[in-house]
Amino acid sequence: MPLFFLIAGVFHPKKSNFEIVKKRVQQLLVPYFLWSFILFFFWLFLGRKYGESAALDLSPIKNFIGIFYAQGDIDYMNWGIPMWFLPSIFLTFLIFWLIKKFIQNKKNNS
């Protein structure tokens, strides 16, 4: 997990503003939701009837909710466990951006 945050920090832009946040939404969240819905519907109509998914008897509602939790777990994202990475990298970027903005505002007010 620390390697994840290290990589997120290395690729964080030197200067960030709201435009860069919007760009990251387009780069990370739009593809995540697009592919998540595609994979979920494939799993819903075909994938859950074959292989390991058929033996697990997983809830389609929980798996749909898993798209919004982005939790890489069999119960919530059996169809796309590795997809958790995209929203996590976005949230890491966003938190770092907010912390950086808070520190800069504090410096300017001092």
TrEMBL record:
Location of the Acyltransferase domain: 1-108
Annotated TM spans: 28-46, 76-99
Pfam families documented for this protein: Acyl_transf_3
InterPro entries to which the protein is assigned, alphabetical: Acyl_transf_3_dom (IPR002656), Nod_factor_acetyltransferase (IPR052734)
Q: Which UniProt keywords apply?
A: Membrane, Transmembrane, Transmembrane helix
Source domain of life is Bacteria
**PANTHER family on file:** MEMBRANE-BOUND ACYLTRANSFERASE YKRP-RELATED (PTHR37312)
The protein in question is named Acyltransferase 3 domain-containing protein
Q: What lineage does UniProt assign to this protein's organism?
A: Bacteria, Pseudomonadati, Bacteroidota, Flavobacteriia, Flavobacteriales
